[in-house]
Amino acid sequence: MKQGKLPHDLLADLLGRLPARDPRVIVGPRVGEDAAAVRVGDRLIVVGMDPITFATDLIGWYAVQVNANDIAVMGAEPKWLLATLLLPQEATEDEAASVFDQLAEACEELGIAPIGGHTEVTSSVGRPVVVGCMLGEMDPERLVTTEGARPGDAVILCGPAAIEGTALLAREMGELLREKGMGEDAVARARNFLFDPGISVVAAARAAAEVGVTAMHDPTEGGLATGLLELALASKVGLEIEAERIPILPLTREVCSRLGVDPLGLIASGALLMTVRPEEAEGMLGALRGLGREAAVVGRALPESEGLSLVVEGKRQPLPRFSRDEVARLFDESGERD
User: Fold this and answer.
1) Do 97 and 167 fall into the same domain?
2) Which of 168, 234, 290, 301 could be cross-linked to 32 through a Cys-Cys bond (beta carbons 3.0 to 4.6 Å apart)?
3) Rounded to the nearest 5 degrees, what angle is found at the Cα of 43, between the Cα atoms of 42 and 48?
């Protein structure tokens, strides 16, 4: 198999083989859900796990951010982190210390307590890998899932598409971008997309949950298009998305153009997908913009039989599907990384 997510149909089949034994599991393993939720007393404990495999620098910081996002989009507060750090045999003690410093800084920034994990030097990896497991807690009645969208809902995107992918490509393939004519200042600004606009959606998810959503999802690997597909599969709805309404920053378009990448299939942490009842859309946009976040109604949910479509210049066409993230495809095809 090629690197990237498992195909959704295969994953659904594999998840269907897992036993469901504990009625306290409110949200278990499902395609499209960002985390699990388990009832403990009168609270829900929300648990998510994500590895960092594409990035080489700032992997500790990445691990905290992307795992906190998965907890936040369920409506919970990220609280505790376990992290597994796998280092290749060529790694130095300074490199190990750097990852720990990044973990500490990011946890301090988000008010998260590191509570354990595992470290190992192993010949099984050729580059550092961090696997984060984040836990949060919440009142059960505030739970948000990916499966709550209903026909007629407005689809809102908070944050520009492909922020993480833009930064990742600039950091991993900066030399290639410069060879293809991109200026040093532009490469530096693209690298900084991790922090400005930034890949955390914790504050935005918190605000959205307060206003009220029918579904939320954190589109990551496979980009916005895959995030939309996962939302549709989880909610059993169709979607009609207006291409011109999707916010994509000019620098993202430039990076993608120079590298031959489709921004809709590019890893998308920093964007937050949600659905709301149509009468709530303007209030939601106001709340998100009040945080200084760019947000737009990009489409609407339809009956499942309508399928998934992208409207481009007034013409309806199938929403593009990506068998794997554009970053993985580009790395495989080019073999080049800084």
Assistant:
1) no
2) 234
3) 155
